[in-house]
Known about the structure:
By secondary structure, the protein is an alpha/beta fold. The protein is built from eleven helices and 13 strands. It has two domains: 3-174, Peroxisomal Thiolase, Chain A, domain 1 (3-Layer(aba) Sandwich); 180-334, Thiolase/Chalcone synthase (Peroxisomal Thiolase, Chain A, domain 1, 3-Layer(aba) Sandwich), CATH 3.40.47.10.
Amino acid sequence: MINSKIAGYGHYVPDNVVTNDHLAGMMETNDAWIQERTGIQERRWIDPKTGETTSTMGTKAARKAIAKAGITPADVDFIIFATLSPDYYFPGPGVQVQEQLGIAEVGALDVRNQCSGFIYALSIADKFIKTGTYKNVLVIGSENHSGGLDKTTRGRGVSVIFGDGAGAVVMQPTTQEGKGVLTTHLHSEGVHAKELALIGPSTSHWVDKMIAENDESDTSYYPYMNGNFVFKHAVTRFKEVIEEALAATGYKPTDIDMLIPHQANLRISQFIQKSMGLGHDKVFNNIQKYGNTTAASIPIAFSEAMEQGKVKEGDLLCMAAFGSGFTWASTLIRM
């Protein structure tokens, strides 16, 4: 029986550190207000002068993951790129990474599932490998939020949360019994789509329309989030989808060696940790340093946890996410 395993990992974040005090100079907010609500102390935002983009950050993370896997870019036979902030409206960044890495004509797939995008992408890679279709699948999550945030007091409820960065893994087959991806679970509930959304630009609401009308009151070009509503659904769905993965494999919460949740809000992670009876050493959070990097948050956290020795060979790893869509997902992996 063939399973898929994570053979390599890597992450990249911009050098530009934006602290809460920095934001206080841009809008009516302060460090205590931000930390109390989100747990975030600082985040990384691309410095526009560097020319960094979603695809270039993804490529930098991918190079590290490829090296860790002990392969070269030429060995990659499929690319899956998860993001909500592509460089272009189209084409997506998967083909840009393929070009930037100098990879020949392999398939490139873009996943637009926002906060749960990385787990959706990992699930697709898992199925391709289990069916024998591909042997080295590069999975990337990368986001450039800072280029599209309302950095005024009007937008502070959203803008203080999000950061930029990228993470990547290389998935490969394994025949070792009980090792690799054990299960994945994907869900959506589109009835709540507009509770966390970016309505424009879109094919029905182009940027030139806003320019022509010069309507400064049109906030549809900035992300909107119904914070309390999202929080209440997140804590429910996170727990449900983790329990679903455990039930599918016969494990209990106490069997989890490390939970890496999507870094949406430290308060959500803490609520899930408490409700599932997990110790502090069983949950990895880095939102304090990077903010919410959406599709990049889980691969960045995974990469850091591996580098710090907090996830080891043989560990039972759980990843879970909830976000815009609403979509939510989980996976259990035996490292």
